[in-house]
Amino acid sequence: MKEIIKLRQQIQNYNPYNEQEEKDKQIMLKYIDTFDDVLTRNNEFGHFTASSWVVNKERTKILMLYHNIYQSWTWSGGHADGETDLLGTAIRELKEETGVKNIKVLSEDIYSLEVAPVEGHIKRGKYVPSHVHLNLTYLLEVDENEETTVKEDENSGIKWVNIEDVEKISTEKYMIEWVYRKLNQKLEKYKNKKE
121 pairs with which residues across the strands? Predict the structure, then answer.
């Protein structure tokens, strides 16, 4: 209980970047206040996930995965599955999905938030009904030369993509218009903070 209060406080303290984030922040807070199982997939209406916007050291490229279910180039991320440390979830998912080991956290604060729609689909032979992901995104850095490994049950490709090409390779309209474009715009303030 104490952990969900801490997560709620992090979301409450988050300063929205635009109208989409303002609305989605309010929805996330309502979910936490309404349901007692927003951290697990047992809540079939919606549950928390964490993603990472992974940049190279020069902040010129994004690490993208070809997601088998969505049939699109997408970011790394996954379900909280009961965890309240969503930064830890984002890091764990990045390691599992790409095989990278050396990850630099550029900020422990939430980088972005979004309520993302998920259409009904088959996963591991079972139907998963349409629902929403209450997603927190974190900004991470990985060396562009680090070896990657495809996680075949989830993705079938991993590649570094020039920032200006991210919108061209994704086929998910919502993600392009409301998420990826925003993430790259927000990245501008980090371009001068290279180490």
Answer: 128
